[in-house]
Amino acid sequence: MKFKYLLFLSLCFGVSTVSAQSSFGRERHHLRLLQYEDSLNIFRQKLDSLLADSELSGAAKRRLLRERLGESEPGIEYNSIFLPPTFYKSVSRKNFSLDKTPTLLDKAMLNLYLSRPDLVVRTETQLERIGGTVDAEPIRIDHAPEIVDQVAPKAIEPDVAPVDVVILKPNFWAFTGDYYLQFLQNYVSSNWYQGGESNYSMVGAITLNADYNNKQKVKWDNRLEMKLGFQTSREDTRHSFRTSENLLRLTSKLGLQASKKWYYTAQVMGYTQFMRQWKSNSDELTTEFLGPFVMNISLGMDYNVLWLKKRLTGTIHLAPIAYNFKYVKRTILATRYGIEENKHQLHDFGSQFTIDLNWKFSDNISWKTRLYGYTTYERAELEWENTFTFQFNKWISTKLFVYPRFDDGVARIGNHGYWQLKEYMSIGFSYSF
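Above: the chain's sequence. Below: its structure in token form.
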């Protein structure tokens, strides 16, 4: 019984001793791990401070690192910890020399050589044959951009530079016009069975427009028309040529807007002739400059025409109040133009209308018409000018001009009565701008 009790006590003491020893061993191992971790942290701090100096070369950094770690001469590098185990000569030299102090790394490598020589796979001489290590440049790793940086717009800072500010006044004026020069030649032999005579003719015209529109309420339209034409005739033995077209006319119209297309308008129109004209084979004068001169002043309203998809454009002027003035320099022309005999002037009042339209049938065919009427309720004047243009190209065109006129203020002549007619057709040069 005593033997069993003693055996039980021995076993308990043995177990407690083994437990104590194992517990002590674990605490000692844990302490060594803490010391190793502290040494690595210290080494990391020294290494970070060294690498932060960008002005030192790789060799200078290694030399300075050895001095900070207590090495007085070159030895093994700390990167050997992460390389396959290698036998270095400096480890045994420092551990077994009296005047040299081994480092922590030297002691660790000596412990490896003595305890596990089977793990050492190469020598320092083999590494020297292969060559030294290469200093790797630090690699910068950029973080991926945030989704906000990719989506959110970045403000663009404008370049600040001195700028010259130029203020332009609005231009309310528009200048347009057109001109043409037409020719016509007709040859008839002297023995032509139907008779007739040869002649040559030429007609030129210039139309200039200067229009003001301030895009609010005021319009001022101005038009200057000049036409002059000549023709030759064998039957007229007293004059080498005669005028077929002879017109100088100025129309000015000032409007104040009443609605979208209607304007209150005051219009002034005046016209005369360029040159003198005589009857065929006679010295009887029929017209001259300022003989006659006609001026018409009217007050009314204008309507802007913009029809047929802008192919038919123009204005319609209706004036219930109009003043008409007519003047001749020579009294011998008075009765020819409705002025009393031996007088130079005529004044009367009435109503007036003017229709100016331009119808563009196609790119090459157009019709320009002007219908003018004036009446004093005792006499009436009516003029209808029609110009049909056939445009072959930018420069060449053919024109057909038809001009009927009615005036019962002059004496009746033959079977024509109060009606008058002018017509011609020509081909030549034309240009618009």
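The CA atoms of residues 47 and 194 lie 127 Å apart.
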